[in-house]
Automatic annotation (TrEMBL):
Protein name from the UniProt record: Beta-galactosidase
Beta-galactosidase trimerisation domain ranges (all copies): 398-602
Record domain Glycoside hydrolase family 42 N-terminal: where: 14-385
Keyword annotations from UniProtKB, A to Z: Glycosidase, Hydrolase
EC number: 3.2.1.23
Domain Beta-galactosidase C-terminal residue range list: 611-669
Catalytic activity, reaction form: Hydrolysis of terminal non-reducing beta-D-galactose residues in beta-D-galactosides
Domain of life: Bacteria
Lineage of the organism: Bacteria, Bacillati, Actinomycetota, Actinomycetes, Kitasatosporales
Organism field: Streptomyces broussonetiae
Pfam families the UniProt entry points to: Glyco_hydro_42, Glyco_hydro_42C, Glyco_hydro_42M
Keyword Ubl conjugation applies: no
Amino acid sequence: MTAPRTPKIPYGGDYNPEQWTEEVWDEDHRLFTEAGIDTLTVGVFTWSLTQPGPDTYDFTVLDRILARAAAEGRRVCLATGTAAVPPWLAKRHPEVNRTDFEGRRHRYGQRHNFCPSSPAYREHATRLADRLAGRYARHPALLAWHINNEYGGACYCDLCAEAFRAWLRRRHGTLDALNDAWWTTFWSHRYTDWDQIEPPNALTEHWRGPDHTAFQGITLDYHRFTTDALLGCFRAEKDAIRRHDPATPVTTNLMGPYRPLDYHRWAPHLDFVSWDNYPPLDAPPTRAALGHDLMRGLKDGAPFWLMEQTPSTTACRDVNPLRRPGDLRLATFQAIAHGADATLYFQLRASRGACEKYHGAVIGHAGRADTRVFREVAALGEELGRLGATTLGARTPARTALVFDWDSWWALETSDGPSRLVRYLDVVHAYYRAAREAGADVDVVPHTADLGHYDVVMAPALYMVKGDLAHRLEAVAARGGTVLATFLSGRVDEHDRAFRTDVPGPLAPLMGVRVDEWDARPEEFTQSVPELETEARLVFEIVRLTGAEAVATYGADFYAGTPAVTRNRPGDGAGEAWYVATALDQRGVDRIVRRVLSRHGLLGPYADHRGVETATRIAADGTPLLFLLNHAPAPTSLPVAFTAADLLTGRRLERGEPLTLDPYGVAVLHAAQ
């Protein structure tokens, strides 16, 4: 099953009319029409309203909300409301409340506050989903089901301990296998009974927080268990919905590169991917782009929904900058350029009370239509209406892949060496950014992905190598492609045990290098890499060549002159394997990645136009759509790469003709006949 079929890009967002009288609803719908809003996400936090007691359900308000949406010609993404338990449930079943990392059982409060292993939570949440589906499965306003909301967080209670032990039995089979996987001969930890195993937290294996653990194996498995436990809750609600509604697509809103949950394990169970995009406004544009491409890669390149973004400001940080004029339009088209088939907001009307009353909203507290934010939202709604269905279902024709692996993320950042200053996402983003700014479309893929159609495969900080990935990377090079790996790759197996081979483990034959030692230094320490006119920091692996050639070397210390960057031509020399043995600064990463891309003709036509992002999608009729996005606060001019029509202006542009993009401007070029 795929995303809902719509005649245009769905436009709207989170709407909470239960907070308001129906007189306000009248004003809202008038303004929705003015802004071109056609899609509402409703019911996200309505559990205490729709089920005020254990055996009492009241759908009166939700009935009116959906009826009004249908009367206005709007569609609804209907949430099950199970992300925040009602007070009566927490009081009646205290075990529903989570136990935190320090071992404290929480009392009622906040949201995302449930234990995923609680039978009481599972029973009541599933029953509510069942009731909702039975009531609204054939409602004319229903467009999609939205289960729970932004799943996340871990619990360490006795129920989770029991569920963890059962999960471990299924994963490892025997205690002997588990003891071997966790290397429990270390520190007298060998388990002789499943009941001896405790969740890894501040009272057991951890010190100085969640990233400092005595046994990485158990902590890694608890991350995997938590992912599966929360996924189990999602699947239970989806099953309840499917008993009444076999056809309407089901999703939940993910959060991009979110460390606590491995979304690759979730992807098969989502009918379509949706996610919430809240990048820091001072982050480079490629941070949000990485999130979009990661979400698109969850289901083999299928388009996704942008379920939430702020129209103006957020309310969850110490300081919350405002989006500048034009930034909302640019961010929206960036999402569409990377595969979004819907663009929605949080929130449509600002709440009057509680912690999100200052979060950005399309409609503010005064309900005005003459604010800058509302005018920008309305103008964008009109533009998306003119765009129609042109981009819907379009795919990205990437020839470059980046392997993204949650297990490597978890294992690397809980390792006691070589450096705790290395952050997985920063390393990944540096290489992704280099490729995107060079004009390459990039698929962000799991380690299990089919790599057969990529010319370039980047695997930065692939700390853990699992399954047959090493052989599939070798196959990329064997057919003439290029593989790029970095420092701290190929260190451990799926259980976080060091390989009994030369570093980089299974990647060593492909890379043609051997690493015996590594130097780690404080963040302020840098070392030059003269051949690249750049600097390196954090980790300096000392490389011996076993077939590769040195491309660049370290400029100082006792290992001065030894390789910092290498290139190997394995086999008959058709392909290449690059190894970057240190954390180069962005300039150095850019130079390496551009050399790799240029070998395959993958540098984009605007690779030298700093601040201009390009992305390509192939429309359903096979026509390329080229998105040009100017992230600079000044206008820029560039020649048109092919004869095209700009879908946003209707203007025909001849090949080579200069095109001026306004500050934060956008063009969508459709190849002209």
